[in-house]
Amino acid sequence: MTTTHVTVLKKEAVEGLSLRPEAIIVDATLGAGGHARDILSQLNSDGMLIALDADESAIEALEGELKGDATVHLITANFRTLDSVLTKLDVPHVDGVLADLGWRMEQFAGGGKGFSFQHDEPLTMTFGNPTDEDSYPFTAKDIINEWSEESIANVLKGYGEERFAKRIARKIVEERESAPIETSGQLVEIISSAVPGFYRTGKTHPATRSFQALRIAVNDELASLEEFIQVAVQHLSPNGRLAIITFHSIEDRIVKHTFRTLAAEHGMTIITKKPVTASKEELAENPRARSAKLRIIQKN
Protein backbone atom coordinates (compact mmCIF):
# COMPACT_ATOMS: atom_id res chain seq x y z
CA MET A 1 0.00 0.00 0.00
CA THR A 2 1.28 3.44 -0.90
CA THR A 3 2.20 5.74 1.95
CA THR A 4 2.15 8.88 -0.19
CA HIS A 5 -1.02 10.90 0.13
CA VAL A 6 -3.00 11.76 -3.02
CA THR A 7 -5.46 14.63 -2.63
CA VAL A 8 -8.98 13.60 -3.62
CA LEU A 9 -11.30 15.75 -5.79
CA LYS A 10 -8.69 18.49 -5.74
CA LYS A 11 -9.71 20.23 -8.96
CA GLU A 12 -13.45 19.94 -8.29
CA ALA A 13 -13.24 21.20 -4.71
CA VAL A 14 -11.07 24.23 -5.46
CA GLU A 15 -13.06 25.18 -8.55
CA GLY A 16 -16.22 24.79 -6.50
CA LEU A 17 -15.11 27.59 -4.18
CA SER A 18 -15.35 30.03 -7.13
CA LEU A 19 -12.24 31.90 -5.99
CA ARG A 20 -11.41 35.52 -6.62
CA PRO A 21 -7.69 36.46 -6.52
CA GLU A 22 -8.21 38.69 -3.47
CA ALA A 23 -10.31 36.14 -1.56
CA ILE A 24 -9.85 35.06 2.06
CA ILE A 25 -10.07 31.27 2.12
CA VAL A 26 -10.02 28.73 4.96
CA ASP A 27 -8.64 25.26 4.35
CA ALA A 28 -10.05 23.73 7.51
CA THR A 29 -8.25 20.40 7.12
CA LEU A 30 -4.80 21.13 5.73
CA GLY A 31 -3.60 17.52 5.60
CA ALA A 32 -0.84 17.09 3.03
CA GLY A 33 -1.58 20.52 1.54
CA GLY A 34 -2.92 19.45 -1.85
CA HIS A 35 -5.96 21.71 -1.82
CA ALA A 36 -4.05 24.53 -0.11
CA ARG A 37 -1.41 24.64 -2.85
CA ASP A 38 -4.07 24.94 -5.55
CA ILE A 39 -5.88 27.64 -3.62
CA LEU A 40 -2.67 29.60 -3.07
CA SER A 41 -1.82 29.47 -6.76
CA GLN A 42 -5.01 31.42 -7.48
CA LEU A 43 -4.65 34.12 -4.82
CA ASN A 44 -2.85 37.43 -5.23
CA SER A 45 -1.12 39.60 -2.64
CA ASP A 46 -4.49 40.86 -1.37
CA GLY A 47 -5.65 37.31 -0.71
CA MET A 48 -5.27 35.19 2.39
CA LEU A 49 -5.13 31.46 3.13
CA ILE A 50 -5.93 30.28 6.65
CA ALA A 51 -5.08 26.60 7.01
CA LEU A 52 -6.00 24.47 10.03
CA ASP A 53 -5.18 20.93 11.06
CA ALA A 54 -5.71 19.19 14.40
CA ASP A 55 -2.56 17.15 13.77
CA GLU A 56 0.45 19.29 14.64
CA SER A 57 2.70 17.17 12.40
CA ALA A 58 0.69 18.26 9.35
CA ILE A 59 1.32 21.91 10.17
CA GLU A 60 5.01 21.31 10.91
CA ALA A 61 5.49 19.44 7.62
CA LEU A 62 4.26 22.41 5.59
CA GLU A 63 5.66 25.27 7.68
CA GLY A 64 7.76 27.42 5.37
CA GLU A 65 6.81 25.31 2.35
CA LEU A 66 3.36 26.69 1.57
CA LYS A 67 4.18 29.93 -0.19
CA GLY A 68 2.53 32.27 -2.63
CA ASP A 69 1.63 35.90 -3.13
CA ALA A 70 -1.12 35.73 -0.55
CA THR A 71 -0.77 35.92 3.24
CA VAL A 72 -0.63 32.42 4.77
CA HIS A 73 -1.58 31.40 8.31
CA LEU A 74 -0.93 27.79 9.37
CA ILE A 75 -2.63 26.93 12.65
CA THR A 76 -2.81 23.76 14.74
CA ALA A 77 -6.50 23.56 15.64
CA ASN A 78 -9.56 21.39 15.21
CA PHE A 79 -11.92 22.89 12.65
CA ARG A 80 -14.71 23.06 15.23
CA THR A 81 -12.72 25.93 16.82
CA LEU A 82 -12.82 28.00 13.62
CA ASP A 83 -14.66 30.82 15.38
CA SER A 84 -11.87 31.39 17.92
CA VAL A 85 -9.22 31.05 15.19
CA LEU A 86 -10.81 33.77 13.07
CA THR A 87 -11.39 35.96 16.13
CA LYS A 88 -7.69 35.79 17.06
CA LEU A 89 -6.74 36.68 13.49
CA ASP A 90 -9.29 39.52 13.48
CA VAL A 91 -10.90 38.08 10.35
CA PRO A 92 -14.69 38.31 10.81
CA HIS A 93 -15.66 37.09 7.35
CA VAL A 94 -14.16 34.75 4.74
CA ASP A 95 -15.01 34.08 1.11
CA GLY A 96 -14.70 30.33 1.14
CA VAL A 97 -14.18 27.37 3.45
CA LEU A 98 -13.04 23.91 2.42
CA ALA A 99 -12.95 20.77 4.57
CA ASP A 100 -11.65 17.41 3.36
CA LEU A 101 -12.66 14.82 5.96
CA GLY A 102 -10.27 12.21 4.61
CA TRP A 103 -6.88 11.14 5.86
CA ARG A 104 -3.28 11.82 5.06
CA MET A 105 -1.68 8.46 4.29
CA GLU A 106 1.21 9.53 6.53
CA GLN A 107 -1.13 9.39 9.52
CA PHE A 108 -1.81 5.73 8.80
CA ALA A 109 1.72 4.74 7.88
CA GLY A 110 3.67 4.79 11.10
CA GLY A 111 1.75 7.65 12.69
CA GLY A 112 2.16 5.91 16.04
CA LYS A 113 -1.44 6.33 17.19
CA GLY A 114 -3.03 3.06 16.13
CA PHE A 115 -5.23 4.46 13.37
CA SER A 116 -4.40 1.66 10.96
CA PHE A 117 -5.12 -2.03 11.26
CA GLN A 118 -2.06 -2.61 9.07
CA HIS A 119 0.41 -1.39 11.70
CA ASP A 120 0.93 -2.53 15.29
CA GLU A 121 0.92 0.69 17.31
CA PRO A 122 -0.34 1.99 20.68
CA LEU A 123 -4.10 2.46 20.69
CA THR A 124 -4.77 6.18 21.04
CA MET A 125 -6.42 7.29 17.75
CA THR A 126 -6.36 10.99 18.66
CA PHE A 127 -5.93 13.56 15.89
CA GLY A 128 -3.88 15.74 18.22
CA ASN A 129 -1.79 15.18 21.33
CA PRO A 130 -3.26 12.23 23.30
CA THR A 131 -2.06 13.77 26.58
CA ASP A 132 -4.36 16.76 26.04
CA GLU A 133 -7.17 15.58 28.29
CA ASP A 134 -9.31 18.65 27.64
CA SER A 135 -9.51 17.74 23.95
CA TYR A 136 -9.39 13.98 24.43
CA PRO A 137 -11.08 12.80 27.65
CA PHE A 138 -10.57 9.21 26.48
CA THR A 139 -8.53 7.29 23.91
CA ALA A 140 -9.30 4.14 21.92
CA LYS A 141 -7.42 2.18 24.56
CA ASP A 142 -9.75 3.55 27.24
CA ILE A 143 -12.84 2.54 25.27
CA ILE A 144 -11.55 -0.98 24.62
CA ASN A 145 -10.32 -1.65 28.15
CA GLU A 146 -12.72 0.27 30.37
CA TRP A 147 -16.09 0.71 28.71
CA SER A 148 -18.92 -1.79 29.14
CA GLU A 149 -19.66 -4.42 26.52
CA GLU A 150 -22.89 -2.65 25.60
CA SER A 151 -21.18 0.74 25.23
CA ILE A 152 -18.45 -0.72 23.00
CA ALA A 153 -21.08 -2.42 20.84
CA ASN A 154 -23.02 0.84 20.56
CA VAL A 155 -19.88 2.68 19.39
CA LEU A 156 -19.07 0.05 16.77
CA LYS A 157 -22.64 -0.09 15.50
CA GLY A 158 -23.48 3.61 15.70
CA TYR A 159 -20.28 5.09 14.30
CA GLY A 160 -19.02 2.22 12.15
CA GLU A 161 -22.28 0.58 11.10
CA GLU A 162 -20.55 -2.68 12.03
CA ARG A 163 -22.95 -5.61 11.57
CA PHE A 164 -21.07 -7.83 14.04
CA ALA A 165 -20.69 -5.13 16.71
CA LYS A 166 -22.11 -7.27 19.53
CA ARG A 167 -19.88 -10.25 18.75
CA ILE A 168 -16.79 -8.05 18.56
CA ALA A 169 -17.64 -6.24 21.80
CA ARG A 170 -18.18 -9.54 23.60
CA LYS A 171 -14.81 -10.85 22.40
CA ILE A 172 -13.04 -7.64 23.43
CA VAL A 173 -14.44 -7.88 26.96
CA GLU A 174 -13.44 -11.55 27.18
CA GLU A 175 -9.88 -10.89 26.04
CA ARG A 176 -9.26 -7.89 28.28
CA GLU A 177 -9.99 -10.00 31.36
CA SER A 178 -6.70 -11.83 30.72
CA ALA A 179 -4.59 -8.77 29.95
CA PRO A 180 -5.08 -5.16 28.80
CA ILE A 181 -5.46 -4.62 25.05
CA GLU A 182 -2.62 -2.19 24.31
CA THR A 183 -2.05 -2.10 20.53
CA SER A 184 -3.84 -1.94 17.21
CA GLY A 185 -2.34 -5.31 16.27
CA GLN A 186 -3.90 -6.98 19.30
CA LEU A 187 -7.26 -5.43 18.49
CA VAL A 188 -7.12 -6.60 14.88
CA GLU A 189 -6.55 -10.18 16.02
CA ILE A 190 -9.48 -9.99 18.44
CA ILE A 191 -11.83 -8.56 15.82
CA SER A 192 -10.77 -11.16 13.25
CA SER A 193 -11.39 -13.98 15.70
CA ALA A 194 -14.83 -12.62 16.61
CA VAL A 195 -16.35 -12.40 13.13
CA PRO A 196 -17.48 -15.20 10.78
CA GLY A 197 -15.05 -16.68 8.26
CA PHE A 198 -16.71 -15.11 5.23
CA TYR A 199 -16.30 -11.67 6.82
CA ARG A 200 -12.57 -12.20 7.24
CA THR A 201 -12.05 -12.96 3.57
CA GLY A 202 -14.17 -10.21 2.00
CA LYS A 203 -12.92 -7.23 -0.02
CA THR A 204 -12.94 -5.02 3.06
CA HIS A 205 -10.68 -5.79 6.03
CA PRO A 206 -12.84 -7.05 8.93
CA ALA A 207 -11.43 -4.38 11.27
CA THR A 208 -12.21 -1.44 8.96
CA ARG A 209 -15.55 -0.42 10.44
CA SER A 210 -14.49 -0.98 14.04
CA PHE A 211 -11.39 1.19 13.65
CA GLN A 212 -13.45 3.89 11.93
CA ALA A 213 -15.96 3.83 14.78
CA LEU A 214 -13.32 4.12 17.49
CA ARG A 215 -11.59 7.00 15.68
CA ILE A 216 -14.90 8.88 15.33
CA ALA A 217 -15.73 8.36 19.01
CA VAL A 218 -12.30 9.41 20.30
CA ASN A 219 -12.23 12.60 18.23
CA ASP A 220 -15.94 13.40 18.62
CA GLU A 221 -15.97 13.74 14.84
CA LEU A 222 -19.69 13.91 14.16
CA ALA A 223 -20.41 16.61 16.73
CA SER A 224 -17.30 18.46 15.52
CA LEU A 225 -18.59 18.33 11.93
CA GLU A 226 -22.03 19.66 12.88
CA GLU A 227 -20.48 22.46 14.94
CA PHE A 228 -17.98 23.29 12.19
CA ILE A 229 -20.67 23.67 9.51
CA GLN A 230 -22.65 26.14 11.61
CA VAL A 231 -19.57 28.19 12.51
CA ALA A 232 -18.25 28.21 8.93
CA VAL A 233 -21.57 29.42 7.55
CA GLN A 234 -21.75 32.21 10.14
CA HIS A 235 -18.37 33.55 8.98
CA LEU A 236 -19.05 33.37 5.23
CA SER A 237 -19.32 36.64 3.33
CA PRO A 238 -22.25 37.10 0.91
CA ASN A 239 -21.73 34.68 -2.03
CA GLY A 240 -19.15 32.83 0.05
CA ARG A 241 -19.05 29.06 -0.28
CA LEU A 242 -18.54 26.09 2.01
CA ALA A 243 -17.25 22.90 0.38
CA ILE A 244 -17.01 19.59 2.25
CA ILE A 245 -15.59 16.26 1.07
CA THR A 246 -16.80 13.22 3.01
CA PHE A 247 -15.68 9.61 2.84
CA HIS A 248 -18.39 7.61 4.56
CA SER A 249 -22.16 7.59 4.70
CA ILE A 250 -22.63 8.91 8.23
CA GLU A 251 -20.64 12.09 7.52
CA ASP A 252 -22.30 12.55 4.15
CA ARG A 253 -25.77 12.30 5.69
CA ILE A 254 -24.89 14.99 8.22
CA VAL A 255 -23.61 17.33 5.49
CA LYS A 256 -26.55 16.64 3.17
CA HIS A 257 -29.25 17.17 5.81
CA THR A 258 -27.54 20.21 7.35
CA PHE A 259 -27.18 21.84 3.94
CA ARG A 260 -30.87 21.18 3.21
CA THR A 261 -31.83 22.81 6.50
CA LEU A 262 -29.61 25.82 5.80
CA ALA A 263 -31.19 26.21 2.37
CA ALA A 264 -34.75 25.87 3.68
CA GLU A 265 -34.44 28.01 6.80
CA HIS A 266 -31.72 30.51 5.90
CA GLY A 267 -32.08 30.93 2.15
CA MET A 268 -28.70 29.47 1.27
CA THR A 269 -28.15 27.89 -2.14
CA ILE A 270 -27.02 24.31 -2.54
CA ILE A 271 -24.56 24.38 -5.47
CA THR A 272 -24.26 20.60 -5.79
CA LYS A 273 -27.75 19.20 -6.31
CA LYS A 274 -26.08 15.79 -6.26
CA PRO A 275 -22.70 15.15 -4.64
CA VAL A 276 -19.66 15.43 -6.90
CA THR A 277 -17.75 12.14 -7.11
CA ALA A 278 -14.41 11.14 -8.59
CA SER A 279 -14.01 10.76 -12.34
CA LYS A 280 -13.02 7.46 -13.94
CA GLU A 281 -9.57 8.90 -14.52
CA GLU A 282 -9.13 9.80 -10.85
CA LEU A 283 -10.43 6.42 -9.71
CA ALA A 284 -7.92 4.67 -11.96
CA GLU A 285 -5.09 6.66 -10.35
CA ASN A 286 -6.45 6.61 -6.81
CA PRO A 287 -9.00 3.91 -5.89
CA ARG A 288 -9.32 5.51 -2.43
CA ALA A 289 -11.37 8.24 -4.09
CA ARG A 290 -14.26 5.87 -4.75
CA SER A 291 -16.10 6.80 -1.54
CA ALA A 292 -15.45 10.56 -1.71
CA LYS A 293 -18.42 12.91 -2.05
CA LEU A 294 -18.16 16.68 -2.43
CA ARG A 295 -21.05 18.95 -1.44
CA ILE A 296 -21.03 22.76 -1.75
CA ILE A 297 -23.38 25.41 -0.36
CA GLN A 298 -23.38 29.19 -0.93
CA LYS A 299 -24.43 32.03 1.35
CA ASN A 300 -26.64 34.56 -0.44
UniProtKB/TrEMBL annotation:
The lineage of its organism: Bacteria, Candidatus Kaiseribacteriota. This is Ribosomal RNA small subunit methyltransferase H. Its EC number is 2.1.1.199. It comes from Candidatus Kaiserbacteria bacterium CG10_big_fil_rev_8_21_14_0_10_47_16. Its main location: cytoplasm. One of its GO terms (biological process) is rRNA base methylation. One of its GO terms (molecular function) is rRNA (cytosine-N4-)-methyltransferase activity. Gene3D superfamilies: Putative methyltransferase TM0872, insert domain, Vaccinia Virus protein VP39. It is found in: Cytoplasm.
